[in-house]
Design goal:
globular, alpha/beta, seven-stranded parallel beta sheet, Rossmann fold, about 40% helix, about 325 residues, single chain, two-stranded parallel ribbon
Length: about 325
């Protein structure tokens, strides 16, 4: 099997490359970061390229024929940033992606795994969401992903394409094998913010609101180890056609899947877990709620288990330990 991976050298992308290599999936990987051509990982071929540059993309595809599946991971993310800079999010996540998908269609490449987000879900009682839960994205980032899912659904119906859309919850952690072929690239998640306090790069951790309607007043989130998320991509690729069969006829050409830990953890509880692992006390201040945030959501994973045979293997504490390994704590 051969996969074409966009955004393959960011925080999520690097770990997806590891998972593809672990599962013997050959990968052609593009990213815009400097030195992309110099990266080395067995089974992966790297190119410095913008997925919006169709001429360059076509050159790369010509050099690497017989692509079985595309993993479209290139995106700009972060809810708070999207509120301040919506153009960047809609341009990258919607406009450029739509043109990229159309180019794939013209080349006869019809199987896509799409990196989506759980931030498009509406608030539901108890915060547990299934793929059939109501959608109501509250930020430009969430809306950009929602719009692109709608575009992909229409492409599937009109052009005979098939898509598995992986709705990521809150990825944290680092490669569980602590490999260094592709160095750990920090994300902007809660765990990396706590690491900055250990490094004295920041003085206090800000909790955005303590008056949410949750068990301790802080937001409920579903934190998933990035290696689990990466493995979901590999299993979605390996079981792509079978996944639609296993869906039982409800999802014929567009299959959304929740990719989370299936565990609900408040922000305060996560800080406590970090303190327990590190033995360090984290100074905390309470800030105002951020625009685009919701009180909580976490994933029902039954559809992902049934369709691609995936389920998470790691705990929150494992993710904390794996990041600390990279920072040599």
């Amino acid at each position: 099997m051969k996969a074409f991976v966009t955004g393959g050298l960011g925080y999520l992308g690097r770990n997806i490359c590891y998972a593809l290599a672990d599962n013997n999936i050959e990968a052609v990987v593009i990213d815009q970061i400097e030195g992309s051509d110099d990266f080395k990982l067995e089974g992966c071929k790297f190119y410095k390229a913008d997925f919006g540059d169709m001429a360059h993309i076509n050159e790369i595809l010509d050099e690497n024929p017989n692509i079985d599946i595309v993993i479209h991971n290139a995106m700009v993310s972060a809810v708070a940033k999207s509120v301040e800079h919506p153009y960047e999010f809609y341009n990258q996540n919607v406009v450029k992606s739509m043109k990229f998908f159309h180019n794939l269609k013209k080349r006869g490449i019809k199987n896509i795994i799409y990196a989506s987000t759980a931030s498009m879900y509406d608030i539901v009682p108890g915060f547990l969401v299934t793929e059939a839960s109501p959608l109501k994205p509250r930020s430009p980032f969430g809306r950009s992903k929602f719009i692109t899912e709608m575009i992909l659904k229409d492409y599937c119906d009109a052009y005979g394409m098939k898509v598995i859309s992986l709705r990521y919850f809150n990825p944290i952690g680092a490669d569980y094998k602590t490999r260094h072929e592709l160095e750990h690239k920090p994300g902007s998640n809660i765990l990396e913010r706590l690491i900055k306090i250990l490094n004295y790069e920041e003085r206090v951790f800000t909790i955005y609101g303590e008056d949410w309607e949750t068990r301790d007043g802080t937001c409920i989130r579903d934190f998933i180890h990035v290696s689990d998320l990466a493995n979901a991509n590999a299993l979605a690729a390996l079981n792509f056609d079978k996944a639609f069969e296993n869906a039982g006829g409800k999802y014929k050409n567009f299959l959304p899947l929740n990719i989370g830990s299936g565990m609900d953890i408040t922000v305060r509880e996560f800080i406590m877990a970090f303190e327990n692992v590190t033995g360090e006390k984290i100074p905390v201040v309470i800030g105002e709620r951020r625009k685009g945030d919701i009180p909580g959501s976490y994933a029902n994973l039954s559809l992902a288990k049934r369709t691609i045979g995936w389920q998470p293997q790691f705990r929150v504490e494992d993710a904390i330990i794996d990041v600390l390994k990279y920072y040599e704590y």
